[in-house]
Design brief:
With 534 residues, this protein is of the alpha/beta class. 61% of the residues lie in helices and 7% in strands.
């Protein structure tokens, strides 16, 4: 029998697939580049970092992270979710070079997280707290970018805390900004926000990314107001270095200050960035996998390694921390990308734009970048999110709101910590209530109660069971059913046996069904626990 020979070799098939994917990835990469450029500049602005640093992190997120990542559609770069941490860190550490060292350390911490298979870390943070953290960041972006939107571009953006270093708070600073507005900046901001909200709703126009239209509009309006009393000043425009040759370009990069390795605050900032960036990355990856038309699943541990490598590279040459970001990733999916080549190409376009068109980039008004960030902030803290969390119940809504308020009035770490404490309280409360269910039947003057215990009854359930037993009416017949229980904590057993012993004083008859004198954790459970902790 003659062997079947395929018409194409494996290399031919790979070339065909690559060519087929390139037809989709190349156009998608241009769309992502056009979305990413203003976002890179805007996030650098909100972070109090050099605007060029935002471009660097966008390039690293595209070329480096995408090359090592196992995710086919996610796009990495500077993230709005880190602006609060970055700005606070630059201020507290005293110099941008010292902050860059913290970014490098964050990358090393992420490598460690990837190596110890910590890709499931996001599962240990309640979604209500994470959603609250992101909503708070959205509100902070809105509050802190309002002055830029009305044309007040002073040192206001140097502090993302509620109580600022100049002794003003967020609201008083906004009030002060509203007394020094620029007509050109307001016109640009209003038109930009309108375009960002309405443009995506028009399907025929949606081929061109709304942020690109905003940037073009900002430049045009800036020219129209040029020369008038209402025109934009130099400090109200983007300012990145214009280089004459490649040597000058290389001179723009900044190295970390390694002499600060003895500073413990650098390690705290590095660990904070690593944890928050990893969480945001894992959340973004999960969201992107859900909208992937092919429904591929991204390897989370490999993603942490890729992000770690990216942050080490970004910190070494003067960039901001990078994470996988949902705005650019969803734009990538929407533009029809199929593989990570799209993300890699978008990084290449960012690099070429800095080399060849910096003069055009410097024509972009800061007010149109502020408008983009205002819309990003609105999407993070949208009203529908509050409604959604409210519908999920108080145990989700209260930690969500508490996290938002705590982040707004303290800082990100303290806010998340407070949110976690409230979430744990509701978790324990729920756990205590779910230790049993009971059924009541009335037979004449006597009540018959059947209390069926849950599979696992821990010491946390003692209070709830004790309250139930104390409130059982006199002259009742009570059956406590332990047939489902694999483990009952000794404290709970003591409560049950004490109730049985003293029930006669209330004329109550107690029957215990399948309740042992003591319980031990099974060997299988011990084995699983040892495997998890080892």
């Amino acid at each position: 029998m003659q062997k079947f020979k395929p018409a194409f070799s494996k290399s031919d098939a790979n070339k065909y697939i690559l060519k087929k994917n390139l037809k989709k990835d190349l156009p998608a990469s241009i769309v992502v580049f056009l979305v990413a450029l203003p976002l890179c500049l805007g996030i650098a602005l909100a972070s109090g970092a050099p605007l060029f640093a935002g471009i660097i992190s966008g390039i690293i997120g595209g070329i480096v992270v995408a090359s090592f990542s196992g995710s086919q559609l996610s796009v990495s770069g500077p993230a709005a979710g880190l602006t609060v941490i970055v700005l606070g860190a630059i201020t507290s550490l005293g110099s941008y070079q010292t902050f860059l060292l913290a970014v490098v350390l964050a990358g090393i911490f992420q490598l460690i997280l990837g190596l110890i298979k910590a890709g499931t870390i996001g599962n240990y943070f309640p979604s209500s707290v994470i959603e609250g953290m992101l909503a708070a960041i959205g509100l902070i972006l809105i509050l802190k970018q309002l002055p830029h939107a009305v044309g007040v571009d002073t040192d206001f953006d140097g502090d993302q805390q509620f109580v600022q270093s100049d002794h003003q708070n967020t609201f008083s600073a906004i009030g002060d900004a509203l007394r020094h507005v620029s007509l050109a900046a307001i016109v640009i901001s209003v038109l930009s926000i309108a375009i960002l909200l309405l443009w995506p709703k028009i399907k025929k126009l949606n081929i061109v990314p709304a942020p690109l239209i905003v940037v073009v509009l900002g430049i045009v309006v800036g020219f129209l107001f040029a020369g008038s009393n209402s025109g934009l000043r130099a400090n109200q425009m983007v300012e990145i270095p214009v280089v004459g040759n490649f040597g000058e370009f290389l001179g723009l990069f900044t190295m970390p200050d390694f002499s600060a390795l003895a500073n413990k605050d650098v390690y705290i900032v590095g660990a904070t960035i690593a944890v928050v960036a990893s969480l945001e990355t894992l959340l973004s990856i999960e969201a992107v996998d859900k909208i992937d038309p092919i429904k591929r699943v991204s390897p989370t541990n490999r993603e942490l390694l890729a992000q770690g490598i990216g942050n080490i590279c970004s910190g070494m040459i003067g960039g901001l921390p990078v994470t996988a970001v949902i705005v650019r990733s969803s734009a990538n999916v929407g533009a029809g990308a199929r593989t990570r080549l799209s993300a890699i190409f978008h990084g290449g376009w960012l690099l070429l734009s800095v080399l060849f068109i910096p003069q055009i980039i410097n024509l972009i008004p800061l007010s149109c970048l502020a408008a983009i960030l205002l819309v990003v902030g609105y999407k993070l803290a949208r009203i529908s999110l509050f409604k959604h969390m409210y519908r999920k119940g108080w145990d989700q809504f209260v930690p969500f709101v508490v996290t938002i308020l705590a982040v707004l009035f303290t800082d990100l770490l303290n806010g998340v910590g407070v949110g976690l404490l409230v979430s744990v309280f509701y978790l324990l409360r729920t756990n205590m209530r779910n230790s049993y269910f009971y059924k009541v039947q009335q037979e004449g003057d006597k009540k018959h109660l059947r209390i069926k215990l849950a599979e696992e009854v821990s010491f946390l359930n003692k209070a709830a069971i004790q309250v139930l037993l104390i409130n059982i009416p006199k002259d009742s017949h009570v059956v406590i059913d332990g047939s489902n229980a694999k483990y009952i904590h000794p404290d709970v057993l003591e409560t049950i046996f004490n109730f049985e012993e003293n029930a006669y004083t209330k004329g109550t008859v107690v029957t215990l069904e399948e309740i042992k004198k003591n319980y031990v954790v099974s060997k299988m459970n011990n084995k699983i626990a040892n495997e998890i902790t080892s």
